[in-house]
Automatic annotation (TrEMBL):
GO cellular component: actin filament; cytoplasm; microtubule plus-end; stress fiber
Domain of life where this protein originates: Eukaryota
SMART domains found in the cross-reference section: GAS2 (SM00243)
Pfam family, one: GAS2
Protein name: GAS2-like protein 1
Species for this entry: Candidula unifasciata
Keyword Metal-binding: no
Lineage: Eukaryota, Metazoa, Spiralia, Lophotrochozoa, Mollusca
PANTHER family: GAS2-LIKE PROTEIN PICKLED EGGS, TRANSGELIN
GO molecular function list: actin filament binding; cytoskeletal anchor activity; microtubule binding
TM region positions: none
Keywords annotated in UniProt: Cytoplasm, Cytoskeleton
GO biological process: actin crosslink formation; microtubule bundle formation; protein localization to microtubule plus-end; regulation of microtubule polymerization or depolymerization
Presence of the UniProt keyword Cytoplasm in the record: yes
Domain spans labelled Calponin-homology (CH): 1-81
Length: 191
Protein backbone atom coordinates (compact mmCIF):
# COMPACT_ATOMS: atom_id res chain seq x y z
CA UNK A 1 0.00 0.00 0.00
CA UNK A 2 2.94 2.33 0.65
CA UNK A 3 0.95 4.51 3.06
CA UNK A 4 2.57 5.94 6.14
CA UNK A 5 0.39 6.39 9.18
CA UNK A 6 0.72 9.52 11.22
CA UNK A 7 0.33 8.97 14.94
CA UNK A 8 -1.08 12.06 16.58
CA UNK A 9 -0.75 11.32 20.27
CA UNK A 10 1.10 12.81 23.21
CA UNK A 11 2.36 9.51 24.57
CA UNK A 12 2.17 6.81 21.87
CA UNK A 13 5.54 6.46 20.20
CA UNK A 14 5.03 3.36 18.07
CA UNK A 15 2.90 0.26 17.83
CA UNK A 16 4.71 -2.86 19.11
CA UNK A 17 5.07 -5.48 16.41
CA UNK A 18 4.20 -9.12 16.93
CA UNK A 19 1.35 -10.83 18.70
CA UNK A 20 0.58 -10.77 22.38
CA UNK A 21 1.29 -14.23 23.85
CA UNK A 22 -2.15 -15.66 24.60
CA UNK A 23 -3.48 -19.00 25.82
CA UNK A 24 -6.94 -19.93 24.55
CA UNK A 25 -9.65 -21.67 26.52
CA UNK A 26 -8.39 -20.82 29.99
CA UNK A 27 -10.74 -20.77 32.96
CA UNK A 28 -11.43 -17.49 34.77
CA UNK A 29 -9.36 -16.71 37.87
CA UNK A 30 -6.67 -19.28 36.99
CA UNK A 31 -2.96 -18.63 36.66
CA UNK A 32 -3.26 -18.86 32.87
CA UNK A 33 -6.02 -16.21 32.85
CA UNK A 34 -3.83 -13.95 34.97
CA UNK A 35 -0.91 -14.60 32.63
CA UNK A 36 -3.01 -13.60 29.59
CA UNK A 37 -4.05 -10.37 31.30
CA UNK A 38 -0.49 -9.63 32.40
CA UNK A 39 0.73 -10.09 28.81
CA UNK A 40 -1.92 -7.64 27.59
CA UNK A 41 -0.95 -5.08 30.24
CA UNK A 42 2.73 -5.40 29.24
CA UNK A 43 1.74 -4.85 25.60
CA UNK A 44 -0.17 -1.67 26.50
CA UNK A 45 2.93 -0.40 28.33
CA UNK A 46 5.05 -1.05 25.22
CA UNK A 47 2.37 0.74 23.21
CA UNK A 48 2.88 3.74 25.48
CA UNK A 49 -0.40 3.81 27.41
CA UNK A 50 0.38 5.86 30.55
CA UNK A 51 0.35 4.13 33.91
CA UNK A 52 -2.63 6.27 35.04
CA UNK A 53 -4.71 4.72 32.22
CA UNK A 54 -3.54 1.16 32.88
CA UNK A 55 -4.91 -1.43 35.27
CA UNK A 56 -3.69 -4.32 37.39
CA UNK A 57 -4.37 -8.01 36.81
CA UNK A 58 -6.70 -8.26 39.83
CA UNK A 59 -8.74 -5.31 38.53
CA UNK A 60 -10.04 -7.61 35.80
CA UNK A 61 -9.66 -11.12 37.27
CA UNK A 62 -11.31 -10.32 40.58
CA UNK A 63 -13.34 -7.39 39.18
CA UNK A 64 -11.82 -5.05 41.75
CA UNK A 65 -11.68 -1.99 39.50
CA UNK A 66 -13.53 -2.51 36.22
CA UNK A 67 -13.46 1.24 35.53
CA UNK A 68 -9.66 1.12 35.09
CA UNK A 69 -9.99 -1.79 32.66
CA UNK A 70 -12.55 0.08 30.57
CA UNK A 71 -10.48 3.29 30.52
CA UNK A 72 -7.42 1.33 29.32
CA UNK A 73 -9.42 -0.43 26.59
CA UNK A 74 -10.87 2.89 25.43
CA UNK A 75 -7.38 4.37 25.20
CA UNK A 76 -6.22 1.39 23.11
CA UNK A 77 -9.30 1.95 20.91
CA UNK A 78 -8.37 5.64 20.52
CA UNK A 79 -4.89 4.65 19.38
CA UNK A 80 -6.40 2.17 16.92
CA UNK A 81 -8.74 4.86 15.60
CA UNK A 82 -5.77 7.15 14.96
CA UNK A 83 -4.26 4.35 12.88
CA UNK A 84 -7.46 3.97 10.84
CA UNK A 85 -9.16 1.07 12.62
CA UNK A 86 -12.87 1.16 13.33
CA UNK A 87 -13.30 2.82 16.71
CA UNK A 88 -16.07 2.10 19.20
CA UNK A 89 -18.99 4.52 18.92
CA UNK A 90 -17.98 6.24 22.15
CA UNK A 91 -14.53 7.08 20.76
CA UNK A 92 -16.08 8.28 17.48
CA UNK A 93 -18.42 10.54 19.47
CA UNK A 94 -15.46 11.96 21.42
CA UNK A 95 -13.73 12.88 18.16
CA UNK A 96 -16.91 14.51 16.83
CA UNK A 97 -17.31 16.51 20.06
CA UNK A 98 -13.66 17.64 19.89
CA UNK A 99 -14.17 18.77 16.28
CA UNK A 100 -17.36 20.67 17.17
CA UNK A 101 -15.65 22.40 20.10
CA UNK A 102 -12.84 23.45 17.77
CA UNK A 103 -15.46 24.84 15.36
CA UNK A 104 -14.62 22.31 12.68
CA UNK A 105 -16.81 19.97 10.71
CA UNK A 106 -15.92 16.38 11.69
CA UNK A 107 -14.37 14.61 8.73
CA UNK A 108 -15.34 11.04 7.91
CA UNK A 109 -12.28 8.88 8.35
CA UNK A 110 -11.31 6.08 5.98
CA UNK A 111 -11.40 2.82 7.91
CA UNK A 112 -8.93 -0.01 7.45
CA UNK A 113 -10.59 -3.41 7.16
CA UNK A 114 -8.52 -5.47 9.57
CA UNK A 115 -10.19 -8.80 9.01
CA UNK A 116 -12.75 -10.69 7.00
CA UNK A 117 -15.94 -10.59 9.04
CA UNK A 118 -17.65 -13.46 7.23
CA UNK A 119 -18.40 -16.54 9.31
CA UNK A 120 -16.49 -19.78 8.89
CA UNK A 121 -19.46 -21.37 7.12
CA UNK A 122 -19.75 -18.44 4.67
CA UNK A 123 -16.07 -18.70 3.82
CA UNK A 124 -16.31 -22.49 3.32
CA UNK A 125 -19.35 -22.06 1.03
CA UNK A 126 -17.47 -19.40 -0.95
CA UNK A 127 -14.54 -21.77 -1.57
CA UNK A 128 -16.86 -24.67 -2.45
CA UNK A 129 -18.82 -22.49 -4.89
CA UNK A 130 -15.74 -22.33 -7.14
CA UNK A 131 -16.65 -25.85 -8.29
CA UNK A 132 -18.21 -25.60 -11.77
CA UNK A 133 -19.24 -29.26 -12.15
CA UNK A 134 -22.89 -30.03 -12.99
CA UNK A 135 -22.94 -32.08 -9.78
CA UNK A 136 -21.14 -29.97 -7.20
CA UNK A 137 -18.49 -31.42 -4.87
CA UNK A 138 -20.37 -32.20 -1.62
CA UNK A 139 -19.29 -30.54 1.61
CA UNK A 140 -21.99 -30.67 4.28
CA UNK A 141 -21.81 -28.86 7.60
CA UNK A 142 -22.26 -31.27 10.53
CA UNK A 143 -21.61 -28.76 13.32
CA UNK A 144 -19.40 -25.72 13.95
CA UNK A 145 -16.04 -26.49 12.39
CA UNK A 146 -17.00 -30.01 11.26
CA UNK A 147 -17.92 -30.97 7.70
CA UNK A 148 -18.57 -34.17 5.78
CA UNK A 149 -16.76 -33.94 2.48
CA UNK A 150 -16.80 -35.73 -0.86
CA UNK A 151 -18.48 -38.99 -1.78
CA UNK A 152 -16.80 -40.84 1.08
CA UNK A 153 -18.50 -38.58 3.64
CA UNK A 154 -15.23 -38.29 5.55
CA UNK A 155 -15.43 -35.95 8.53
CA UNK A 156 -12.99 -33.03 8.41
CA UNK A 157 -12.28 -30.28 10.91
CA UNK A 158 -12.15 -26.69 9.66
CA UNK A 159 -11.14 -23.44 11.37
CA UNK A 160 -10.02 -19.92 10.53
CA UNK A 161 -6.38 -19.00 11.07
CA UNK A 162 -5.74 -15.33 10.38
CA UNK A 163 -7.23 -14.89 6.88
CA UNK A 164 -7.19 -18.53 5.83
CA UNK A 165 -9.72 -21.32 6.15
CA UNK A 166 -7.71 -24.29 7.43
CA UNK A 167 -8.45 -28.03 7.33
CA UNK A 168 -7.08 -30.64 9.73
CA UNK A 169 -5.00 -33.04 7.62
CA UNK A 170 -3.19 -35.89 9.34
CA UNK A 171 -1.26 -34.35 12.21
CA UNK A 172 -1.24 -30.82 10.82
CA UNK A 173 -3.26 -28.19 9.00
CA UNK A 174 -3.58 -27.18 5.33
CA UNK A 175 -5.64 -24.46 3.67
CA UNK A 176 -9.07 -25.51 2.47
CA UNK A 177 -8.17 -24.16 -0.95
CA UNK A 178 -5.19 -26.55 -1.23
CA UNK A 179 -7.29 -29.41 0.14
CA UNK A 180 -9.99 -28.81 -2.47
CA UNK A 181 -7.38 -28.53 -5.23
CA UNK A 182 -6.25 -32.03 -4.28
CA UNK A 183 -9.63 -33.68 -3.66
CA UNK A 184 -12.28 -31.92 -5.76
CA UNK A 185 -12.22 -33.43 -9.29
CA UNK A 186 -13.33 -30.12 -10.80
CA UNK A 187 -10.66 -28.05 -9.09
CA UNK A 188 -7.86 -30.58 -9.56
CA UNK A 189 -7.62 -29.45 -13.16
CA UNK A 190 -8.18 -25.77 -12.25
CA UNK A 191 -4.47 -24.97 -11.93
Amino acid sequence: MGETLEMRSYFIRCVPEGNIPYREGVKPETFQARDNISNFISWTRHLGIPEVLSFETDDLVLRKNEKSVILCLLEVARVGAKLGMLAPTLVQMEEEIDAELAGEEPLPRAQIQTCDLRSLDERVRDLISRCTCPVQFPMIKVSDGKYKIGDTKSLIFVRILRNHVMVRVGGGWDTLENYLNKHDPCQCNYR
